[in-house]
């Protein structure tokens, strides 16, 4: 009895090259974006500490200390968008820094788009880019409304 050779999945899976997109191509509810952007400015929004809703201190839930949050305007030559930086990401988002956002997603906040990188993505500081940020096309200033379409 002959047995068919089954190819090993480890040998056949090759890593795909990341596809980089421009800011103006971002749409609500999408994810998996790779972008190279410049930081225009960064504002610390929240550094939480003390008790949370459960009555326990947040230090017991997060051993790294209080959660830090910053809103950063980032962009490229096609447009700009607000990026929500969390914890260690806040330190990387210095004005005029060029960063690579890998596996970024679009979150909706009060009807407008925000760019974010969660635990499945990565933020890397890279060499300074030679483009200017187009602040005229700020995608976070566009308000979206959820419309249910009945069939």
UniProtKB/TrEMBL annotation:
Domain Single-stranded DNA binding protein Ssb-like OB fold per the UniProt entry, residue ranges: 26-125
A Pfam match is OB_Ssb-like
| InterPro entries attached to this UniProt entry | NA-bd_OB-fold, OB_Ssb-like
Listed name of the protein: Single-stranded DNA binding protein Ssb-like OB fold domain-containing protein
Species whose genome carries this gene: Nicotiana attenuata
